[in-house]
Amino acid sequence: MKTDRTAPRRLDDPACGHGVGGDAVVPVGSGTGTRALVARVLMEQGPVTAAVVAAELELTEAAVRRHLDALIADGEAEVRAPARSARPRGRGRPAREYLLTDTGRVRFGHGYDDLATQALRFLAETAGEEAVDAFARHRVRELLGSDLDAVTAPAEPAERVEALARVLSARGYAAQARHGGFGVQLCQHHCPVAHVATEFPELCEAETRAFAELLGTHVQRLATIARGDAACTTHVPLEDPELLARARGKKQGRSVTVSGRPTARVRQVQEEGGSADGGTLSHHGPRKGGSPYDDHS
């Protein structure tokens, strides 16, 4: 059973064109600017008026209203009609009151990640690592759901990658397919389970294996948000003769098996730690192969 699940942090992702210096500071989710301070007052005291926020932060009401308008425009705050009071009010309209929306509360984090991590930790301790792997595979099936056919329908491999990117984007992963070099890179710019996957890379490994099965070829996970990269990047080699032959066979309405030698690029990928039988290359560990970016020490 594993005893240390803490993964090292990486702050660069050359695969998807992101990169920050080694001394860069990763910002906290709540932010540190004036707008974040305004949002915090709304969270702690809301619904409140702009005057109350201004007094709390020692700002002018005009400055506070600018930030409130921006939060409303981003869907992070809303206006609520003030509660009726038995005490008589002065002339003029009652002051508007502001409070955070559910979207606005996200910037301050929540306990869902901690709860999910604790649940998986308990599962690993009571039922073993196999149970965690089984859950990870089940999660991927639930994630793709009824859209599996939409991914496997295109005949061309590159079109399948693009279809997969559309499905993932619809699930909140902000994915896109980037063509270049010897294949296509599937870039996921957001991962809803990144914090949990930091301790449980089985989630990433199951996802990578599912991608390989859907696309009909081995894939190489180059980077993951869970390990500190700017995006989850999966390389899909398109010059694999097995993959191209399958695409041609599908266009002709027949099943094709290829026994030819792999191309130079495929041999290189396999020599770097891949599988000769079309397995996956995982960024997270030796369980299903390895990546040149991995640290297995």
In terms of DSSP E residues, the strand content is 5-15%
Q: Please, how many helices?
A: 12
The residue ranges in which pLDDT falls below 50 over 5 or more consecutive positions are: 6-14, 19-31, 254-297
Main pleated sheet: 4 strands, antiparallel
What form results from the Cα inertia axes?
A: elongated
In CATH terms, what is the fold-level topology of the largest domain? H-NOX domain
Protein name: ArsR family transcriptional regulator
Region (Disordered): 246-297
Q: How would you characterize this protein structure?
A:
- It comes from Pseudonocardia alni.
- InterPro entries: Carb_Metab_HTH_regulators (IPR050313), WH-like_DNA-bd_sf (IPR036388), WH_DNA-bd_sf (IPR036390).
- This is ArsR family transcriptional regulator.
- Residues 246-297 are annotated as: Disordered.
- With 297 residues, the protein is α+β, with helices and mostly antiparallel strands.
- The protein has two domains: 34-106, Arc Repressor Mutant, subunit A (Orthogonal Bundle), CATH 1.10.10; 112-288, H-NOX domain, CATH 3.90.1520.
- Helices cover 43% and strands 12% of the residues.
- The protein contains twelve helices and nine strands.
- It has helices at residues 34-45, 50-57, 61-73, 102-106, 112-127, 129-144, 148-152, 157-170, 194-199, 202-215, 241-251, 264-271; strands spanning 12-13, 18-19, 48-49, 77-80, 97-100, 175-180, 183-188, 220-223, 232-237.
- Strands 6-7-9-8 form a four-stranded antiparallel beta sheet.
- A hairpin with an 8-residue loop joins β8 (220-223) and β9.
- The longest helix has 16 residues, at 112-127.
- The chain is elongated, with a radius of gyration of 25 Å.
- The model is unreliable at 6-14, 19-31 and 254-297 (pLDDT under 50).
